[in-house]
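User: Could you check the structure of this?
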Amino acid sequence: MTTAKPPLDIWARSEPDSPCTQVCVIHSGARICVGCYRTGDEIAAWSRLSYDERREIMATLPERAPMLTAKAARPSTRRAARKRE
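Assistant: Sure, the predicted C-alpha cells are below.
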C-alpha cells in the first residue's frame, strides 16, 4: 500500500517571508538590525503588518545596508576616540 505524498506547496504562503537572517543585533548608530536591516519597530510589528506594508519595507531594505558603514552611523565614542588621535 502506498501513501500519497502531500503537495510541496502545502505550507506556501502568499505574504512575503520575513527577511530575518537570525543575526539579531540592532546597530547603535544606524538603529537598524545588522542582519535584516529592519528597525526595531518594524521587527516587532512584522507579524501584524499587511501584505502591502511588508512589501514596502522589503523594497527599502537593500537601500539601508550602507547605513551600517556610513560615518554618521558609528557610535559617538568611536568618533571621539578618532578625533583625539
